[in-house]
Fold this protein.
Amino acid sequence: MGTAGLKLRYYGDPILRRRAEEITVFDPPLRGVADAMVETMREAEGVGLAAPQVGIERRLLVALDMRTPDDDGAAPIAMVNPEITERSRETWVFEEGCLSIPGIRGDVTRPSQVKVRYRDVDGREHTIDAEGMFARILQHEIDHLDGKLFIDYLSLAEKTLIKTRLKKLAHSHDDQ
Ligand code: CO
């Protein structure tokens, strides 16, 4: 899990469609990868980033922890092997985007609240309740670990509308 020069992967890259593997070793390099991902997320002005998006097929994500926003904005949080253990029946719609699918946005319906179990980079287990935007970000990023993208949730009409742009996007990164 090298950290040198994390590079964003874009739509069309097969890594974004594969299931990432569980992490079993909690060592300093893991913390290094998480820190580098936070850096990459910030540079890209994102609110969340999953390891496959930077070419690492492991179940790791970073996100802005919006439960306790302060003056400097939310602090980043890293989650290893995150799992949604409960979902609210109540849902809400929001127009999502993705760092791996630049320029494309679409309405996605998701549960308003989720309970997430995960380990921190030191291997300690936590369970948190997330709601609102934070819950949405976690669901979006955990989807990435299963090879799922927000565009998968769009209506057929919306999918048809973005089809050409998606195709272009996939080809524009072909030679990377
Ligand atoms: Co994304």
Notes: The two ends are 20 Å apart (CA to CA). The beta strands are 48-50, 60-70, 73-87, 91-96, 106-111, 113-119, 125-131.
